[in-house]
Structures are given as structure tokens and as C-alpha cells.
Design goal:
Number of helices: 18
Strand content: 15-25%
Radius of gyration: 25 Å
Mean pLDDT: 94
Oligomer: single chain
Shape: globular
Number of strands: 25
Helix content: 25-40%
CATH superfamily of the largest domain: Aminohydrolase, N-terminal nucleophile (Ntn) domain
Distance between the termini: 11 Å
Bound molecules: fructose -6-phosphate
CATH topology of the largest domain: Glutamine Phosphoribosylpyrophosphate, subunit 1, domain 1
Low-confidence stretches: none
CATH class of the largest domain: Alpha Beta
Length: 579
């Protein structure tokens, strides 16, 4: 949920740490801080975004340091609660991503032993515990402290007088970047890309000692060998490339993304648990959950395989028997609730398959099999190309399981998306940007498309947007219809067409302005709708993709009109590593 970065090398650490935090800001952005090592530990930390800091604070000397960008869990966003946190003597500094579950008891005991706390965070207990364990060797002090902690952590720690930094991981991602005479550590690879392509993914239980010219990894107190991976993502994949926002860039990357996703899996590489499944459970959160819902609408009629769909956060309460296989969908591969569901499946001897974008993420180490969707890094907090990629992978799974019937449709998917990227949405944006509430209505597979469209609208424009299966409207939500509450409806030829026309008329009769996603030449739709957003004719699967993209663009342009912080919406973070 937070981003951490560390550096040990020959250059001044502070600018590298700050640049790294800017790259990681999508993981959390309510406060930031860095600590560097010179003769003592020097700290700069503040509430607010690191991207708002014009330059490196010149006061921080030293070529070893650690940094943190925060998404608050314990304690409000403030200068005091920003990381790094220190012990009573200010000799030790700690940055932490994760949650220390037993921190209250630890804090009480520490206070009882005379420690003075300055923040409301769970992290600060770690600094005080290391202080108690420290007898001149930071690595040993950290090793003796870790068994006292319950919960999840990726930690970076420095101490005055020690020419090294110590890293430790448990259930929170941490990766090392191996440069020439310099070593990096970070929550993910994005801050490393401009310095090195050689990375080591630490395992749970690992600690590492990083010096400017060497590193050692340990599992417990024994040295451990960890493979060095060559990564293929390049620095330009994390630049805006001329677009005003990462989100717009990522929306425009979707023709390529769908192409990669569809080719991410074939009959030969499809996990056998899926090839032979007679029932499937899908577990995911947020946009990934919507992708799972689209999958259910597609696979059940095409293959007759029943799919149970669960939100990651609710799956822990489920007690009915499992299916043959559990698919966990997670762009980041780090979402705590989805990971818990995968673990629950494994404990119950169910085969598990992860669909994710991030190589070596925790889900890939937990599930029996992984399908990587190859969307490239997604920086904007709101999912766009990763969602399309998830849908692309899942469509390909349905295609394979149904004997390749939709092969040509998937081959055409990238062109279908290209066709809608430049759609003029001005009139629809005029209506949406003035609204306080918007209904999104659809039927069948277009219902989850609408759920995703509404989620995009609310998270980046802050307009209250609610998706309904069109048939549900009469069962209560109709009471909210008014001329001030526009409705967006998908009404394209198909099994639900006639009844959707009827639903739009019913809404129109209550004065509701209608934005219809429909065929441009459809006179019946034109008669009812205030605005038509044209959807190219085509196969229903490509229309799932094109309507999704149109709704992403509608949310984007509405949020832009309202001057919102599109890539970093308030209160959100990209990777939700807490339950
Ligand atoms: C919405 C969005 C979130 C994520 C959700 C799951 O735009 O990005 O709803 O989809 O937090 O994240 P992953 O897919 O990383 O498990």
C-alpha cells in the first residue's frame, strides 16, 4: 500500500530516493520521507505528495539512504506520522510497508520500559525494538527483532555508524536492483528501471544486507542464494510519453495490451486444472472482480461450466464447497484479500490459477499456476489497460475451452479498440460533468461492463455513479430518477436490445437525461436518447471491449473537465495490501 525505496552506492542518495518515491507514488501519496546516512542519520519527511517537492532538500548528505511514500493505515497523514520512523536515540531509521498486527501490545510494553513514541503508527515500534536489540551489529539486531513482529512487512533500516542498509520481507513485496557499484531496494521494479535491469525478488523470511559494492541475502540466519532476473520493462514504459496523464496513455495502449493478453495463453500453455475444470470459482477485487464477472457471463453459455464469483474480501466467510479450480485475478498480484482466497483454496487442496500483470508478485508465488497478461506497467491508480488485458486473457480461456470458436474475433480485438479511442464524447461529458449522481445500466454481459464504467467514473471524477442491471431499476432505484440524474445505458442489437429500449423509455418518462451507447444509425435509440455515443457494430465480445473503452474515456474526460487529480485520486492507492 505504501512505497519504499533504498539506495547504497557512490552517488548522493537523496535525489535517487526522491526520484524513486515519485515513481512509487501511485502506491500511496499522502506523505513521504527520506533518511540518509552521513555521520548521523538525517531525515526529511512531510505530509503531502513527493511530486509537489520541487527539488531535493539540499541538507541531506550521504550515499546510503531509505525513503517512503505513504498511504495511511495507522495515524492520520501528517509530518509526524510520515516515515522514516526513529528510535529514542535517533540513531536508527525505519521505513515500512505492511501492517504490524501486534503493535499495540508491543507499544504498551515499550512505553512501560521507558521508550518515548512520537507517532501514531504501527511502524515506530520496530525502530524501538531494534534499539533495544542493538549491540553494535544492525543485521543481528534486526534478526532478533523480526520474530517479535506479527503481520506483514517490507522493511528498510539504517543506523548511524553502519555503512549498510538492511532489508527484510514478510508478505509484502521487496525487490533488489543490482547496479554497478550500487544496490537499490524497492517495493516494485518501477524505481529501478532507470538504473538497472538486474533484479532479485526477495522471499518471505528473507533479510538482506546492502552495501555500496556488495549484497548478501539470508533466510533466517543462513546465507541464501537468490536468482538474478533480467527484466524487460524499459524506462519509457513508466513515462507519460506526451499524454497529459498516465491514465490516458494507458487507455491508448489498450490495442497493444489486448493483443498481448490474447496471446498470453494458448491451448498448450493453459493450466491443466483449467482445461479439465467442471466448475470454477473466480475471486478478485474491484475492477478485477468485474473482469471475473464478464468471464462468468461468457463461459457459462459457451462451455456450460458453472462459475462462482466472489469478492476477495467476502470469500473468507464462504463455507460452501469449493470448485475444481480457483482463479484469482489481480493486476498487482499483491491484493491481500485475493491472496487470502488463493491460500484458502490451497489449504483445502483446490488447484489455483493466478491471472496477474506482475512477474514474481506474491500471487505468482502462491498459486499453483500463473497466467501473466503482459500489459506492461500500469501507473495510473485507476485500472484501464490491465482490466482490458484481464478480459482479453479470460476471453482467450473461454475461446480455448469452447474449441477456438472466437479465434477470429480475438484476432480483430485490437482494431476494434483502435476504432473508438478518438470518439468525440463532448456532449456526454457536458451532461456528466454537471451531475452529482449518474446511473449506469446494462443487461447481461454489459452489466459488469457498466459496473466497471461506474467504478471508473466515481474513482477519478468523484461523481457518485451507480451501476444497475437494467431489470433491477424498477425494484427501488427508480425513486432516485430525476432530470438532474442522468442515466447511461448500453443498447446495442442482441438478446437484451428490445427490453433495454423499453427500460430507456421508462427512465426518459421520468425526465432522466439518457446517454446511450448504441449504434450510430439506430433510429429507435436516437428517438429516446439525448446523446448517442456510437459503438461500432461487431461481435458481442468486441462490443464488450469497445463499450468498456468508451466508458473509460467518458470517465477520463469528465474528470479532466472537473480538474481532478486523475492519476492519483484522493484516498486511493494502486496496490491494496491490507485486508
Ligand atoms: C479500480 C482499481 C481497483 C483494483 C482493485 C484490485 O480502477 O484499480 O478497483 O482493480 O484494487 O486490484 P488488483 O487487480 O491489483 O488485485
Amino acid at each position: 500500500m505504501c512505497g519504499i525505496v533504498g539506495y547504497a552506492g557512490y552517488r548522493s542518495a537523496a535525489p535517487i530516493l526522491l526520484q524513486g518515491l515519485r515513481r512509487l507514488e501511485y502506491r500511496g501519496y499522502d506523505s513521504y520521507g527520506i533518511a540518509t546516512l552521513s555521520t548521523e542519520v538525517c531525515i526529511h519527511k512531510k505530509a503531502g505528495k513527493v511530486s509537489e517537492l520541487p527539488d531535493s532538500p539540499g541538507i541531506l548528505q550521504g550515499t546510503i539512504g531509505i525513503g517512503h511514500t505513504r498511504w495511511a493505515t495507522h495515524g492520520i497523514p501528517s509530518d509526524i506520522n510520515a516515515h522514516p520512523h526513529q528510535d529514542c536515540t535517533d540513531q536508527i531509521a525505519v521505513v515500512h510497508n505492511g501492517i504490524i498486527e501486534n503493535y499495540s501490545a508491543l507499544k504498551r510494553d515499550l512505553i512501560g520500559r521507558g521508550h518515548i513514541f512520537r507517532s501514531d503508527t504501527d511502524t515506530e515500534v520496530i525502530a524501538h525494538l531494534i534499539e533495544e536489540a542493538y549491540t553494535g551489529d544492525l543485521l543481528e539486531a534486526v534478526r532478533n527483532t523480526l520474530p517479535l513482529l506479527s503481520g506483514s512487512y517490507a522493511l528498510l533500516i539504517i543506523s548511524a555508524g553502519e555503512n549498510r542498509l538492511i532489508a527484510a520481507r514478510n508478505q509484502s513485496p521487496l525487490v533488489l536492483g543490482i547496479g554497478d557499484g550500487e544496490i537499490f531496494a524497492a517495493s516494485d521494479i518501477t524505481p529501478l528501471l532507470e538504473y538497472t535491469s538486474r533484479v532479485i525478488y526477495l522471499n518471505d523470511g528473507d533479510t538482506a544486507e546492502l552495501r555500496p559494492d556488495s549484497y548478501s541475502v539470508y533466510f533466517g540466519d543462513r546465507p541464501a542464494e537468490r536468482e538474478i532476473h533480467e527484466i524487460s520493462w524499459t524506462p519509457d514504459t513508466i513515462q507519460k510519453g506526451g499524454f497529459a496523464h498516465f491514465m490516458l496513455k494507458e487507455i491508448f495502449e489498450q490495442p497493444d495490451a489486448i493483443h498481448q493478453a490474447v496471446h498470453a495463453v494458448s491451448e498448450e500453455t493453459l493450466p491443466s486444472s483449467l482445461l479439465n475444470a467442471s466448475s470454477i470459482t473466480v475471486v478478485a477485487c474491484g475492477s478485477s472482480y468485474h473482469a471475473g464477472m464478464i468471464f462468468r457471463y461468457l463461459i457459462e453459455p459457451a462451455c456450460g461450466i458453472p462459475v462462482r464469483l466472489e469478492m476477495g474480501s467476502e470469500y473468507k466467510y464462504a463455507s460452501i464447497p469449493f470448485s475444481d479450480v480457483i482463479i484469482g485475478i489481480s493486476q498487482s498480484g499483491e491484493t491481500a484479500d485475493t491472496l487470502a482466497a488463493i491460500r484458502k483454496g490451497i489449504c483445502n487442496n483446490v488447484k489455483t490459477v493466478a491471472i496477474t500483470n506482475v512477474l514474481n508478485s506474491t500471487i505468482t508465488r502462491s498459486a499453483h499456476d500463473t497466467i501473466l497478461m503482459h500489459a506492461g506497467p500500469e501507473i495510473s491508480v485507476a485500472a484501464s489497460k490491465s482490466f482490458i488485458s484481464q478480459v482479453g486473457v479470460l476471453m482467450q480461456v473461454v475461446n480455448i475451452l469452447s474449441g477456438g470458436r472466437c479465434h477470429d474475433v480475438l484476432d480483430h480485438a485490437r482494431y476494434a479498440i483502435e476504432q473508438v479511442l478518438l470518439t468525440d464524447l463532448t456532449e456526454a461529458v457536458d451532461i456528466c460533468s454537471k451531475a452529482e449522481h449518474i446511473f449506469y445500466v446494462g443487461r447481461g454481459v454489459f452489466y459488469p461492463v457498466m459496473m466497471e464504467g461506474a467504478l471508473k467514473m466515481k474513482e477519478i471524477s468523484y461523481i457518485h455513479a451507480e451501476a444497475y442491471a437494467a431489470g433491477e431499476l424498477k425494484h427501488g432505484p427508480f425513486a432516485l430518477l430525476s432530470p438532474e440524474t442522468p442515466a447511461i445505458a448500453i443498447c446495442i442489437p442482441g438478446p437484451a436490445y428490445e427490453v433495454m429500449l423499453g427500460n430507456m423509455k421508462e427512465m426518459k418518462a421520468r425526465g432522466t437525461p439518457i446517454i446511450a451507447l448504441g449504434n450510430d444509425d439506430d433510429e429507435d435509440v436516437r428517438e429516446i436518447a439525448d446523446v448517442i455515443v456510437p459503438v461500432p457494430k461487431g461481435h458481442p465480445w468486441t462490443q464488450v471491449l469497445t463499450t468498456t473503452v468508451l466508458l473509460q474515456l467518458l470517465a477520463y474526460h469528465t474528470a479532466n473537465r472537473l480538474g481532478r487529480e486523475i492519476d492519483m485520486p484522493r484516498n486511493l492507492a494502486k496496490s491494496v495490501t491490507v485486508e
